[in-house]
TrEMBL record:
It comes from the Bacteria. This is Phospholipase/carboxylesterase. One of its GO terms (molecular function) is hydrolase activity. SUPFAM superfamilies: alpha/beta-Hydrolases. Pfam families: Abhydrolase_2 (PF02230). InterPro entries: AB_hydrolase_fold, PLipase/COase/thioEstase. Residues 17-200 form the Phospholipase/carboxylesterase/thioesterase domain.
Length: 208
């Protein structure tokens, strides 16, 4: 494995899917979402970094001050570090801009990455995200495809949080599909199926 700024796993791809940037939830690591990536985008290259922040020994992508209260200065810092990692990895592995696939904390840093560093990813699947920046910068996400998957019975997310993030991204110009599935905070087969369909639509060639 090539040494880069983040501990990571990389699996080379084949076929028409864009590479996936896999971003785990709190307490996960660089191996957590590899099976999901293989399931939802068969043949895609998979780039999976480990979050560099530890909370009680559990890896995360940025600090939080309390449950649901983010350290927004750290969000901005870590999003910049992740942007630099993606640039390193693209050069090292010869990749086009990846599509982010993030769960929970990983979905939050993916959203921050798009808003703070447009162009780093070419699209995103955000599973159980929250709004990472209450006052995001003006970003140009014109036409960037995004799927937001909220859980109807999610005990962690404030009501309407997924919708608020979807509106933020739409205001920046992204093409956002927001779905609420009958689930809690955890990953489900419904999430996998929705992500697979969404990513397959991106891989399909468009008519001239």
């Amino acid at each position: 494995m090539i040494e880069l700024s983040h501990i990571h796993r990389f699996q080379a791809g084949r076929g028409s899917h864009a590479p996936l940037l896999l971003l785990h939830g709190t307490g996960g690591d660089e191996t957590d979402l590899l099976p999901l990536g293989e399931m939802v985008a068969p043949g895609a290259a998979l780039l999976s970094p480990r979050g560099r922040v530890l909370e009680n020994g559990m890896p995360r992508f940025f600090r939080r001050l309390a449950e649901g209260v983010f350290d927004e200065a750290d969000v901005r810092l870590r999003a910049g570090e992740l942007q630099a990692f993606v640039a390193e990895a693209r050069e090292a592995y010869g990749l086009p801009a990846p599509v982010a696939l993030g769960f929970s904390n990983g979905a939050n840093i993916a959203a921050a990455l798009m808003l703070l560093h447009p162009g780093t990813v070419s699209g995103a699947v955000l599973i159980r995200p929250m709004v990472p920046l209450r006052e995001p910068p003006t970003a140009d996400l014109a036409g960037v495809p995004v799927l937001v998957l909220s859980g109807a019975m999610d005990p962690i997310m404030p009501a309407g949080e997924g919708e608020r993030l979807a509106r933020q991204l739409e205001t920046a110009g992204a093409r956002v599909l927001h779905r609420t599935v009958p689930a809690g905070h955890g990953l489900t087969q419904m999430d996998a199926a929705a992500a697979r369909d969404f990513l397959a639509s991106l891989a399909r060639p468009t008519a001239a």
